[in-house]
Amino acid sequence: MERYVIPSVMQALQLCQAIAESRSGLSASEIESTLNLPRTSVFRLLRTLTSARVVEKRGTKYFYGTRIYEISATNSRSRYVQRIAAPELSKLIADNHASAIICTLGDYCAFVIDVLDAKEKQITTIRPGTKLPLFESAAGHVMLAYHPKYQNMNDSNHPTNFDEQQAAKLRATTCTRGYAVSHFSQRNVTLVAVPIFMRDGELVSILAIELEGMVHDVRALQAWSKKLKDIARLPTINAQPYEQDMQ
To answer: What is the pLDDT of residue 245?
Structure first.
């Protein structure tokens, strides 16, 4: 280990990574086995991380908490995008049975930081704090296509259950269209998502709209994606430069 690397910090990060990659959570004994650490070390790490809400305990299992996502959601770029995009998204859905969603980039998911519902009786089950998965959501497809983290990943860096072949197909489809689409049959809704890039080319957020019903009409999907893309450009063409705007 490098001279200036703090072992306990590295172990905490490895623990968080292991939990984040597990959909069903991990028990303390499973964490011991995965990280090959003594029980006392695992106990101290878990007590520290749960007290900071980075990890949460449900029954006998430990899951990734919301603290890291909350920190991500409050970063200056996400807040800037949210402030610029939210009013325009409200106008976009005003006359439609739709919900607009703003996501930031989570760890192996798109993390929802804002939701705007057009109708009081037409409220999406997606709420701020929801984690939209990489493979099952349009927002996740955008991350697979445009987030550097998922480009040219080798097998040693793959999280559990990461299907590189499926990821490659989703990247190709999303990049060809310039937007992503996913259908949720249980809720009978369609999600359309587009990326938001800053001036330096960094992917910082994702805009999405949830439409009522299973929308298969390509022209309708393209029309919605164009409207979302127009809003997605606003943070980069705002009158004030980003750096000045955030001061």
So the answer is: 44
Same domain? 41 vs 22: yes
Cβ 175 vs Cβ 220: under 8 Å: no
Of 79-83, 104-108, 232-236, the one with minimum mean pLDDT is: 104-108
Query: What pLDDT score was predicted for residue 246?
Result: 43
Q: Kindly state whether residues 165 and 58 are assigned to the same domain.
A: no
Q: Are residues 152 and 215 in the same domain?
A: yes
pTM (predicted TM-score):
0.69
Question: What are the φ and ψ backbone dihedral angles of 243, each rounded to 5 degrees?
Answer: -60, -40
In sequence order, what are the residues at sequence separation of 6 or more whose Cβ sits closer than 8 angstroms to the Cβ of residue 79?
none
| Residue 12 domain boundaries | 7-65
Q: Return the half-sphere exposure (C-beta side, CA atoms, 13 A cut-off) of residue 6.
A: 4
Structure confidence at residue 154 (pLDDT)? 59
Number of folded domains in the chain?
2
Residue where a domain stops, chosen among 65, 81, 97: 65
Q: DSSP class of residue 79? A: H
In a domain, 2, yes or no: no
Highest mean pLDDT, choosing among 10-19, 123-132, 145-154: 10-19
Per-residue model confidence (pLDDT) at position 242: 47
Q: From the CA atom positions of the chain, what is the Rg in Å?
A: 19
Residue with tokens 């009013």: 87
Terminal Cα distance for the chain, rounded: 39
